[in-house]
Amino acid sequence: MPMFTCAFWTLFLMCRLRTEWKMDQVILCMFMFISAIHHVGHCIFLNEFNDLAAIIHPFYAFADVVTFPLFYLYVRSITSELPLRHLWWVVFAPGVMLSLAIAVIYLNMSPEETSLYVASITFKDQYDGTALCHAMNIVQSISKIVFVIEVSIVMILVARCVKEFDHKVESFYSDTDDKTLKPFHQLLIMFTIAAISSFVFSIIGRHFFVESTWLLAVPSVIFSAVIFQIGWFGSQRTFTFEVQKSEEDAHDAIISQHTDELQKQAAQNAAVAAIPLSQRIEEMVCQHNMFLQKNLKVSDIASALNTNRLYVSQAINDDMHMSFSEYINHKRISYAIQLMQNNPQLNMTEVAAASGFSTDNSFYRNFKAFTGKTPKEATQSK
Fold first, then answer.
1. Which end of the chain has fewer CB atoms at under 10 Å, N or C?
2. For the domain 2-240, what is the CATH code?
3. Concatenated DSSP letters for 163-190?
4. What is the pLDDT, as a whole number, of residue 335?
């Protein structure tokens, strides 16, 4: 099942790339393709295709240690503008070296050695019959060590990428539901479970699962579910760091064009400039009800105050101890509560729209986050 899931997403992404070439989709397609090779190897070993096992084994070893780092590259491609060029050799070098070592050992084995070794690694413990078999066992052990190290590093780096990306999004946008990677957190947990499961299954051995279809179904379902979720997430994801960067650059360009004008205004309004920026933000947002504006961005407030977006974001973080998104949505929820009290005839969709929320889901999520209750529970408690 995982093999077919990988094949499906590989073909789907290849078709999409024919019409729109995007680096994150290229890396996701590579991830699916190499994962497919990995599971083809499992299929050959588990179905006792011993004649093919020695051929697929080097490719299987390559895929085994490349899959997880490729997943990190995919996450990096949608969360960071840092170049990926220097990371490619880090991703592929261990897999290339291990697969070449395995291929060279197989080429030097006799047909009898190859047959005995393939049968032993599929259904029994390691076979130490000859020096070449012993060398192969060493390479296999190194492969498992590399796999564990890579998975540990990848999980840490992916979690860091997601956290930093979400922080940047929440510092720029008020409406973040379709932009942050919060839904990705659950997928990351599933991916971690799959990684641990993969290592445990490799320790137990393939022969343990060959003996029972039900036992084989457990890893098959786990891997298929995770791979499908990754493919679905990647195929639906449209917002990346590039989208945010283009909007930030557009604002910065406008600010840079009016630098001289802004400096003159600042000199003429020394009294205004002496007021703490956080206070000016509060007055601007509340007096003009800017928080009711859908899809409000920190750059909108910065433009209204004739200042830089970074200063606004930093002032909110440092003085109000929250992100820009939290600050605006807190205002919206307070407004929504008053609206519900003064206009009980309004339904929740109307309250959400009047309070500045772009979607009902965003309204319900933020209401629960700030009050600890759903809108319905809050209404009934009055």
1. C
2. 1.20.1070
3. HHHHHHHHHHBS--TTTSSHHHHHHHHH
4. 93
CATH architecture, domain defined by 244-380: Orthogonal Bundle (1.10)
From the CA atom positions of the chain, what is the Rg in Å?
Answer: 28
Structure tokens given for 130: 């000859």
Q: Which residue has the tokens 């600890």?
A: 372
Q: How many CB atoms lie within 10 A of CB 318?
A: 10
- Distance CA(348)–CA(376), nearest Å, equals 9
Residue with tokens 């786990």: 222
Per-residue tokens: 169: 């999004």
Per-residue pLDDT, 124: 55
Residue 48 CA, distance from chain mean position: 36
Output the CA–CA distances (angstroms, integers) from residue 251 to 71, 194, 293, 297, 312, in the order listed: 32, 42, 18, 10, 13
- How many residues are recorded in the chain? 382
- The dihedral through the CA atoms of 39, 41, 46, 52 has a sign that is positive
Q: What is the DSSP letter of 85?
A: G
Assess contact for 324 and 170: CB atoms under 8 A: yes
**CA pair distance 270, 233, nearest whole angstrom:** 50
pLDDT digits (tens, 9 = 90+) for 126-154: 555 678 888 888 888 888 888 888 888 88
Q: Where are the domains of the chain?
A: 2-240, 244-380
Q: Are 96 and 143 in contact (CB under 8 A)?
A: no
Q: How many helices (H) and strands (E) does the chain have?
A: 19, 0
3-state secondary structure of 337: helix
